């Protein structure tokens, strides 16, 4: 991304003191491998803390889904107004993802994650103290920006610090944490609100974030800080690159559909279960919990790609999600809807890391910019999801959102086919044979 002449590395000796060394770029690969070997002796522990942090941070995005009726009654809001509590977080989270890459290159990925999480913990605590909806929305926006300092930076951290052979599995594990948050965030929020109140959801989460920040400081090795051309305006100019390449444009079109359908489906599902079956919060809690079973495929996506190829994995994931949504919309049998919601999640769990890999491959030398834009658009979709779901529900047709989201993903399927059809046979063979590397 940058014109790099030198790089700095932190070495840790046996006495735990740090030495800053500036090295020419032509020695980068040798020294980096030595540093990785030194710093990643406890790789499983590092992978777990990255997975855990991604899970709990993204819980704040999804925590408001079961709280929307509570906000509506507490602050005397319409359903659409209440939905902004989730959407505004997603919008500012997405915007933050555009710029944290520049900050992490300049100040180091670990440093950016730590400072960001400290701010995130504090703002989350303030959200729990909100006594009016306007202040809640402002704080949720700030919370979204602070949350953006972890997710995309963590993926870049893995790409730079982990040996190539370990990146596929690690990125799959971290991605599964992001997705599991979509279920766990709702479950934790529902439980805490039912036992205490909605304020307790954010107060308790803030404590979890503070403890997690301390663990990151202790466990995570320092990464290299690259010295080079970090001119902000020069980097901004490169943001047009993903919008000038057809393949990346098509990938970004798919991106907006993924979390839009995911968040929108769960927004509509809670409403449907309450209205049609009289489910209380506890019963809706159990249905949402079943979706966790669908997340188990995400860590294995890399192996699926190696064995079956990127095209087959992506198309299979999208087809699974489409079938799940359409059956939920057309056949109103409770047991079948629960099974189909799990099938839908299975598909999304495979599509998210696969698309992230594909964007990285198509981005080439500018994969950082391409991934930032992709992440931005992905979470813009997450912000639109609850708004679109509540708008469709105004028709009085409680299962219509499932059909609409299924049709949206069907459009994404056609775009996916177009992406691979446009590729030359040689490029296709290369993409299908590569294990994905974010």
Characteristics of this structure?
transmembrane; mainly alpha; membrane; three-stranded antiparallel sheet; transmembrane transporter activity; 2 domains; Growth Hormone, Chain: A; transmembrane helix; single chain; MFS_dom; disordered N terminus; 3 strands; 18 helices
Structure characterization notes:
With 438 residues, this protein is mainly alpha-helical. It folds into two domains: 200 residues, Growth Hormone, Chain: A, CATH 1.20.1250; 201 residues, Growth Hormone, Chain: A, CATH 1.20.1250.20. 76% of the residues lie in helices and 5% in strands. It is built from 18 helices and three strands. The chain has a three-stranded antiparallel β-sheet. α4 packs antiparallel against α16. The longest helix is centred in the middle third of the chain and has 32 residues. It is globular, with a radius of gyration of 21 Å.
What topology emerges from the helices and strands here?
Layout lengths: L3 E9 L5 E7 L3 H12 L3 H20 L5 H7 L4 H29 L1 H20 L4 H15 L3 H11 L2 H32 L2 H22 L5 E4 L3 H6 L8 H32 L3 H10 L10 H8 L1 H21 L3 H30 L3 H27 L6 H23 L2 H9 L5
Helix pairs in contact: 2-8, 2-9, 3-4, 4-5, 4-6, 4-7, 4-16, 5-6, 5-7, 5-9, 7-8, 8-9, 8-12, 8-15, 11-15, 11-16, 11-17, 13-14, 14-15, 14-17, 15-16
